[in-house]
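Write out structure tokens for TPM domain-containing protein.
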Amino acid sequence: MSTTALSATQRATLDVTMRNAEQLCRAEISVFVGAATGAPRDFATSLHNTLVLPSRSILIMVDPDRRVVEIVTGGHARERFTDEEAQQVVAAMTVRFAAGDLAGGLTEGIELLGQLAKD
């Protein structure tokens, strides 16, 4: 999880939130917050491809400066988590992001992802 825009306490809270969501949905969840190099979707996909088990992983990439959020799912994870559900998660996060609450938006999005993608 690369989240240098967050405090140590916020990163620790997000880590717990991610682990809880992973238990619900049986997928690995990763978060990247930072500058996307080039096209955001391509950047997010390249990050996702470097994960240990990309087929069982879901990556959330947030570029706060460009106001971009991308969610990339591997094949196995996609069986439980649709593009429409990913759009719901992005919508929930961006409402909080627009209010200046990066950590709260990530937390809400990850919790919703876990619920939507569970078995």
